[in-house]
Design brief:
Elements: H1 2-12, H2 16-50, E1 59-63, H3 76-89, E2 91-93, E3 95-101, E4 111-116, H4 118-124, E5 128-131, E6 145-149, E7 162-166, E8 173-182, E9 187-189, E10 197-199, E11 203-207, H5 210-215, H6 218-226, E12 229-231, H7 235-249, E13 253-256, H8 258-301, H9 303-311, H10 316-351, H11 367-396
Parallel strand pairs: 4-11, 6-8
Antiparallel strand pairs: 1-12, 1-13, 2-12, 3-4, 5-8, 6-11, 7-8, 9-10
Helix pairs in contact: 2-8, 2-10, 2-11, 3-7, 8-11, 10-11
């Protein structure tokens, strides 16, 4: 320990400003590597989830960004007519998220309704931790509606319990029965940005049929259209629906297949990854050069003390262990800081009561976070190996003899 303390204080930290700069650069490189890796994992998960839609005959709606939407002039009769046309001529998947409601739960989190029709439910194939799947064959306002709830609501509203509340989109009192509980961190990825997710830990998944949709208000009608999916259709039929939407609502909708959505996403996403990778690569090169240069300069400045240690039995294998211990400490500090920031960000969603991003995980981190941390650790091990081995090779080239003591 004494020899390690000597090298840390007299050699490695001889120029502490350079060491501090190296730590900052290393943290920045680690953070960029972590963010990029986590984004890639999230994107891969999104691709897997949405891949079921990536087949001929499926078209996803997308509001043209140049279309000016004046929602105040919409009339529910126009949207009801439009959904009537949809029901008569198309098979479609509809899911609309984010309608908030107050619902008692132990975390005092605002719950959200997610409305889903049978076709969308078949496509998503949500997994349950307990209970049974949804039933879409019911009479609205005449029967109890079975729902699924997120894991965060399960302790307060277990399977078999009932929930009496005002439905956000019909503004009517509804009697809901908890049919099942979604697995922790069940989520839905965005069609147009697969790396973006909404989590259902504090959601109520409510099945909708044609009767429910016709009884709903403008909020569900319009939001449901934003990414409605036409199934087993054609480009011509999708164009006809676009014309009907333009006629009834004055909105310009595009309909793309999922491969077109993937291609559009990849155009800007891959470019962003290339920029991040280039910046990270440059930072790592600078870190390696800075660490080696600082070590060599410090050794030269402390050549007498360094020589004494060699003469009293310090071997190059022991020196290698000291070097690895030192850089292991530095890199571990960066990983701990990165872990703490990630955990705090995850916990921040709970503090802000941001229910669509609140997740469960070991020490607050979910699987993609841990995998990204492992990737950063792997990169750090490679960088530490390069620094130590190159520095030792350079040090061995420094002429060291009793003469330096004079």
């Amino acid at each position: 320990m004494r020899i390690l303390h000597f090298f840390i204080t007299k050699i490695f930290l001889k120029r502490w400003i350079l060491v501090f700069a190296m730590i900052l650069l290393l943290f920045l490189a680690n953070y960029l590597s972590f963010s990029a890796t986590r984004s890639i994992i999230s994107t891969f998960q999104g691709y897997q989830e949405i891949e079921t839609l990536n087949r001929e005959g499926n078209y996803i709606a997308n509001l043209n960004p140049d279309s000016e939407a004046d929602f105040d002039r919409f009339d529910v009769e126009d949207t009801q007519r439009l959904y009537g046309y949809l029901n008569d001529n198309y098979t479609y998947a509809l899911q609309a998220d984010g309608f908030t409601t107050s619902l008692d739960n132990e975390h005092d989190m605002e719950a959200t309704f997610s409305y889903i029709n049978e076709e969308a439910y078949k496509i998503n194939q949500y997994k349950l931790s307990e209970g049974n799947h949804l039933n879409f064959d019911y009479q609205f306002n005449k029967e109890q509606i079975s729902v699924l709830i997120g894991a965060g609501l399960a302790s307060t509203h277990p399977v078999g319990s009932t929930i009496e509340t005002t439905d956000p989109v019909t503004q009517q009192k509804v009697d809901l029965k908890v049919q099942g509980v979604l697995k922790k961190n069940t989520h839905r990825s965005n069609f147009y940005a697969p790396n973006s997710k909404n989590y259902f830990n504090f959601s109520i998944l409510l099945p909708v049929n044609e009767q429910f949709i016709q009884s709903a208000g403008l909020d569900l009608h319009v939001n449901g259209l934003m990414d409605i999916v036409l199934l087993d259709s054609t480009k011509e039929e999708a164009t006809k629906l676009s014309e009907q939407i333009q006629k009834n609502l004055g909105l310009d909708f595009n309909f793309f297949n999922q491969q077109e959505n993937f291609t559009y996403f990849e155009d800007y996403y891959v470019s962003s990854l290339k920029i991040i990778s280039a910046i990270t690569g440059v930072l790592l090169i600078v870190i390696v050069c800075l660490a080696i240069w600082n070590t060599l300069i410090s050794v030269r400045l402390m050549i007498k003390d360094f020589t004494v240690n060699l003469l009293v039995g310090l071997s190059y294998s022991k020196l290698r262990s000291i070097f690895y211990s030192y850089f292991g400490i530095l890199f571990s500090i960066n990983l701990v800081i990165l872990f703490a920031i990630t955990a705090f960000n995850r916990y921040g969603f709970w503090l802000r009561k941001d229910s669509i991003f609140a997740t469960y995980g070991m020490f607050g981190l979910i699987s993609m976070d841990w995998i990204a941390l492992l990737v950063v650790l792997f990169i750090d091990v490679i960088i530490a190996f390069m620094i130590v081995e190159i520095a030792l090779k350079k040090i061995k080239g420094i002429p060291i003899s009793v003469g330096v003591m004079k």
